[in-house]
Amino acid sequence: MVGPVVVEYYAASEGGGTLITADEWLRHPTSVGRAWPGSTVRVLDAQGEQVPVGETGQVYLQMGDATFEYHHDAEKTRASRVGKMFTVGDLGYLDDEGYLHLCDRRSDMIISGGVNIYPAEIESELACHPKVEDVAVFGIPHEEWGEEIKAVVQPVADAEPGPELTEELLAFLSGRLARFKLPRSVDYVAELPRDPNGKLYKRLLRDPYWVGRERAI
Fold first, then answer.
1. How confident is the model at residue 147 (pLDDT cuts 50, 70, 90)?
2. In this structure, which CATH number among 3.30.300.30, 3.50.50.60, 2.40.30.10, 3.10.129.10 belongs to the domain 109-210?
3. Residue 3 banded pLDDT, cuts 50, 70, 90
4. What are the structural domain ranges in the chain?
5. Chosen CATH of 8-106 out of 3.40.225.10, 2.30.38.10, 3.90.105.10, 1.10.10.10
6. pLDDT of residue 125
7. Cα–chain-centroid distance for residue 108?
8. Can you provide one Gene Ontology molecular function annotated for this UniProt record (predicted)?
């Protein structure tokens, strides 16, 4: 028997980060830990103000007095900064003991009818269905709501894609997610586009729906 031996960390090439032991994770499931020595972690709103405990915002990091600039990209450098702190676009919240919980990437967030919806939550629930091998969720244009939720599913080998599977998946989600988080449509592919390290190229799935649109949220 192995026991709780895994240590997890969250960081960026730019610096800063958090650390959590297995014992800590059992007390704070879904967390990626607290700031390690010399690092600072804050969750800020769109105005750069710290949000209350438990409220989702953009995650900002700082490693001591270290600083950096993106190569030949002053605008990206400026946009990523609040004071000496920087963000790589992750969304999350701090619990009452200072543990960071990640929710999603800001660039992936869906805004539907003025409500912020985090695709990662929907993807996690769909991935629990035994007929789902892989899944991606993102926003596509909707004339009234701005965006609606689209799911793209890679079924397991012996599952038949089609309306019956869609009905089954939506019924599965209905007891696990609020109604406004349910996908409005489901597409099926033989394989989702991932790189050798498993990173999903979500833009390859999302971009075709936004062709000819003035904005792609």
1. very high
2. 3.30.300.30
3. low
4. 8-106, 109-210
5. 2.30.38.10
6. 97
7. 7
8. acid-thiol ligase activity
pLDDT > 50? residue 217: no
Find out whether 53 and 94 touch, Cβ atoms under 8 Å: yes
pTM for this predicted structure: 0.76
Question: In this prediction, what percent of the chain has a pLDDT beyond 70?
Answer: 97
